[in-house]
Amino acid sequence: MTAQLGRRDDVAAARAAALAGLDTSRWPAKLPVRDRLTLLFDPGSFVEDGLLANARSEGLPADGVVTGVGRIEGRLVAVIAHDFTVKAGSWGELGCEKQIRILERADRDLLPVVYLVDSAGGRLNDQMGFFPGRRGASRIFHLQVRLSGRVPQVCCLLGPSAAGGAYMPAFTDWVGMVEGNASMYLASPRVAEKVTGEVTTLEEMGGARMHATVSGCGDEVFGSDGEAIAAARLLLTYLPDSFRDRPAVAEPRPPALPHWPDDLVPSDPNQPYDVNDVIDRIVDEGSFFEIKSGWATEMVCGLGRIEGRVVGVVANQPSVRSGAIFVDSADKAARFISLCDAFNIPIVFLQDVPGFMVGVAVERQGIIRHGAKMLVAMASAEVPRFTVVLRKAYAAGYYAMCAPGFEPRATLALPTATIGTMAPEASANAMYANRIAQIEDPGERAAFVARRVAEQEAEVNLLRMGSDLVVDAVVEPGDMRAELVARLAAADGWDRTRDRRHHVVSPV
Ligand SMILES: CCC(=O)SCCNC(=O)CCNC(=O)[C@H](O)C(C)(C)COP(=O)(O)OP(=O)(O)OC[C@H]1O[C@@H](n2cnc3c(N)ncnc32)[C@H](O)[C@@H]1OP(=O)(O)O
């Protein structure tokens, strides 16, 4: 009896120790792991597995990773949360097993997964535990990839994600990073210096701002753990529990800016404007959740609601690099389209595009293969797609932004729209370059060019586009939202055309 009581006391003490965790005072800018979970889940809803992991051997609380399920706005969600105080959140044998088990459960029960990552990656003094075997880090990555496109996976990067651990965020759909604390890198600056001789800092090589603006491995930068976790909760409201479901419809709200001034989209094709001003007039007020807002900003991608229905918006941004598509913006759009398609979210393309960028630099970067990636994602998407030509729609950029041949449910155009292989001036110059060069008198040359440009403009005339069924409707700016509301509602009964279970959200 006494011995038994002793065992109960031991267990109670081990539980208390694991829950208390280790001293966090060395990291004043970070929230302790259990405080993070309190912010993530609805009050009192968290149910933990494996609290006593490692209690008997080294006594490392929960073996450095807290796993379980909890509710976010009432929906059941699985979590993996590293404890940075326990061997820097590194993955030992038991920690790997816990992460594997919760991912297997998410796969079985179709639960979204939130990752609160703060980890040194594999636990280097336990290599047999995490590295070579069937239930180590490789199994974690395998399950993450299997879950991709099957259930939403959302990551808050709240500290380091070092070495192999850097792949954990990489396999998720969205990565919010906390400035100053979050970092992601395959080798630390110290290791990089040893290998390549390069001297650098953690911020420069793997910091939040670098990843959110240069590499594209991060999605958004936040000032604190609380802000990042709040954004993860919000993002989940746009996503269904799994590929089998549709996102929940919210209470409809009018757009933030109901009035659409005539000059919002300037008729001069070269005059910049901010496409966010158009988005604000189309989506419900306050509903636009931009994805990768600091990276490849000539393309704007985000989730929003139109009369409560979730849509993806893919828009060229004429105020940045004329809205031309570069390698990164093609990748950004491709990945976003893939996310929308995986989770049954219709997509609205807002076109104002001079084309893909041209020149030696982008050819050397592989603009063709990056552009192809975007076209493949767009053409493979089975969710309803709607194309809105705001102003210019030129060249292969027009195709990549869901031209009529790619079966959008509708191609709509503002009265300011022009569609063509290139701008009329460029087209006239390309066709008649030799003739133009032969005309010596400048006035005569200008008149000749003007006539050829006028011919080209007539060729791409919007009335002709309507008459030849290139566009389904020319819509006045002030009516565009209502048009989209009606067309989205009319597409409500859509279903996938092919018998496909799910697909991976392709990495950028
Ligand atoms: C799948 C393949 C892989 O992932 S191999 C993993 C390779 N990982 C690495 O190279 C990362 C090495 N660690 C680091 O760079 C730093 O610890 C980072 C992550 C930046 C965190 O720094 P900081 O918060 O200052 O903590 P710290 O370095 O003082 O460490 C705290 C305690 O944790 C330990 N620790 C750290 N990393 C590991 C690890 N990978 N494996 C085992 N233990 C690790 C440290 O030794 C330290 O332990 P202690 O508290 O002194 O007992």
TrEMBL record:
<protein>
    <submittedName>
        <fullName>Propionyl-CoA carboxylase</fullName>
        <ecNumber>6.4.1.3</ecNumber>
    </submittedName>
</protein>
<dbReference type="Pfam" id="PF01039">
    <property type="entry name" value="Carboxyl_trans"/>
</dbReference>
<dbReference type="InterPro" id="IPR034733">
    <property type="entry name" value="AcCoA_carboxyl_beta"/>
</dbReference>
<dbReference type="InterPro" id="IPR029045">
    <property type="entry name" value="ClpP/crotonase-like_dom_sf"/>
</dbReference>
<dbReference type="GO" id="GO:0004658">
    <property type="term" value="F:propionyl-CoA carboxylase activity"/>
</dbReference>
<dbReference type="GO" id="GO:0006552">
    <property type="term" value="P:L-leucine catabolic process"/>
</dbReference>
<dbReference type="GO" id="GO:1905202">
    <property type="term" value="C:methylcrotonoyl-CoA carboxylase complex"/>
</dbReference>
<dbReference type="InterPro" id="IPR045190">
    <property type="entry name" value="MCCB/AccD1-like"/>
</dbReference>
<feature type="domain" description="CoA carboxyltransferase C-terminal">
    <location>
        <begin position="248"/>
        <end position="490"/>
    </location>
</feature>
<dbReference type="InterPro" id="IPR011763">
    <property type="entry name" value="COA_CT_C"/>
</dbReference>
<dbReference type="InterPro" id="IPR011762">
    <property type="entry name" value="COA_CT_N"/>
</dbReference>
<feature type="domain" description="CoA carboxyltransferase N-terminal">
    <location>
        <begin position="1"/>
        <end position="251"/>
    </location>
</feature>
<dbReference type="GO" id="GO:0004485">
    <property type="term" value="F:methylcrotonoyl-CoA carboxylase activity"/>
</dbReference>
<keyword id="KW-0436">Ligase</keyword>
